[in-house]
Amino acid sequence: MIFLAPFLVIYCVFLIFPLFKAVFISFHDWELAGGYREWIGFFNYEDLWYDDYFWKALGNTMRFAAMAVPSMTILALL
User: Fold this and answer.
1) Helix (H/G/I), strand (E/B), else coil: 35
2) With contact defined as beta carbons under 8 Å apart, do 37 and 29 qualify?
3) Could you give the CA distance from residue 31 to residue 43 in angstroms, rounded to a whole number?
4) Cα 6 to Cα 1: distance, rounded to the nearest angstrom
5) pLDDT tens digits, the chain, 78 residues: what are they?
6) Collapsing DSSP states into helix, strand and coil, what is residue 28?
7) Cα 38 to Cα 18: distance, rounded to the nearest angstrom
8) Looking at residue 4, what is its pLDDT?
9) Of 1, 37, 53, 76, whose CB has the highest number of CB atoms within 10 Å?
10) What is the sign, positive or negative, of the torsion defined by CA atoms of 42, 47, 48, 49?
11) What is the pLDDT of residue 30?
12) Contact 40, 52 (CB under 8 A)
């Protein structure tokens, strides 16, 4: 267990805590330069459905993944 402790500390600090903090922030209307926070629930996610930039970015990401993953796999197998 003593050998596992450093890994668990690093894992929690750099992965688990930021993940839960990001989810917490995503459910709030969060001001970076102030203490204003308001619970808005899924409203931020609802806004994504009507955001053209989000769909463009998602399309670009899918296109990149569709081209990069097969080509990298083929190159790795050569």
Assistant:
1) coil
2) yes
3) 16
4) 10
5) 889 999 999 999 999 999 999 999 999 988 888 778 889 999 999 999 999 999 999 999 999 999 999 999 999 999
6) strand
7) 20
8) 95
9) 37
10) positive
11) 84
12) no
Q: Which of 18, 37, 36, 19 is nearest to 27 (CA)?
A: 37
Say what the pLDDT of residue 46 is. Answer: 93
* Cα 16 to Cα 31: distance, rounded to the nearest angstrom: 23
Q: What would you report as the CA-atom Rg of the chain, rounded to the nearest whole angstrom?
A: 19
Written as one letter, the residue type at 49 is W
| CA distance from start to end of the chain | 41
Residue for token pair 């668990």: 8
- What's the pLDDT at 7? 95
